[in-house]
Specification:
Number of helices: 6
Largest sheet: 18 strands, mixed
Order of helices and strands: EEHEEEHEEEEHEEHHEEEHEEEE
Number of strands: 18
Radius of gyration: 18 Å
CATH architecture of the largest domain: Roll
Number of domains: 2
CATH class of the largest domain: Alpha Beta
Strand content: 35-45%
Shape: globular
Distance between the termini: 7 Å
């Protein structure tokens, strides 16, 4: 029997933040099976957790492909393991992005993720036309692009042409600006239609690049970020030389079982 949980992450109340499906496996499953289930569920990410001798292995799938790093589904997985008593202290996950750890600090769950450098790069053909905006700066962060714009209103009002954006050669793109709200340092939105996600609600992995990007500009290592998707979400960031600690709340919306 495979246990299935739906968890809202970076959320303080149900139906906000970023939902992730967490599948607790009873043994190894094929990539085909995991991809088919992720497509069936239709969430931005489905996480697959399998107990190992030294902790847990963790893999993430969008509805159309496997990804190498996903922050919110990692947080969701840790939340589930603590909630049902399969783990008690810090949790270690073996992943394609190396060893990832999660720990609880008060009411927050903190992910310890690798820092991603944002470097100057020419934009891929068609990016600005599909986004419909003019940038202040353009950076490449691993498989994604970071587009800095002038103010929060541009981020909030952005309405990309998803069909054209899906043809641009990249995994996804974040648009970001300083926050008008003094409670936050910066805001962002993230689009990845080529990966089966038109707009991600709250993107933990992208903040591995956004955190250092804004830490350098603002001259501070501790940041609070707001993702301006329809569901919205809040992230607490601690930028370190090689890692980024990302904190947020998580809650379970439903649990079930798969008889397959």
């Amino acid at each position: 029997m495979v246990l299935l949980h739906l968890v809202d992450t970076f959320a303080e109340r149900p139906f906000t933040g970023n939902p992730a499906a967490v599948c607790l496996l009873d043994g190894p499953r094929s990539v085909e099976w995991m991809q088919q289930l992720a497509f069936e569920l239709g969430f931005a990410e489905t996480a697959y957790v399998l107990r190992t001798e030294d902790g847990f292995s963790l893999r993430w799938f969008t509805p159309v492909l496997e990804v190498a790093l996903c922050g919110h589904a990692t947080m969701a997985s840790a939340h589930v393991l603590w909630s049902i008593g399969r783990a008690h202290g810090p949790i270690t996950f073996q992943t394609q992005s190396g060893v990832l750890t999660c720990e609880r600090k008060g009411r927050l769950i903190y992910l310890d993720l690798p820092r991603i450098a944002a470097v100057d790069a020419p934009p891929p053909i068609g990016l600005f036309a599909a986004l419909g905006l003019r940038p202040v700066s353009v950076k490449r962060a691993d498989e994604d692009f970071l587009i800095e714009v002038q103010d929060e209103d541009i981020v909030r009002r952005a309405a990309p042409d998803m069909r054209n954006l899906a043809q641009v050669k990249m995994r996804g793109v974040a648009i970001t600006a300083p926050s008008r709200n003094p409670e936050f340092d910066f805001v962002s939105r993230f689009f990845a239609p080529a990966s089966g996600i038109d707009e991600d609600a709250v993107t933990g992995s992208t903040h591995c690049a956004l955190g250092p990007f804004w830490a350098e500009r603002l001259g501070k290592q501790s940041l609070r970020a707001q993702q301006l998707s329809k569901r919205g979400g809040v992230l607490t960031l601690e930028v370190q030389p090689e890692r980024v600690r990302i904190g947020g709340h998580a809650l379970t919306v439903f649990t079930g079982a798969l008889p397959i």
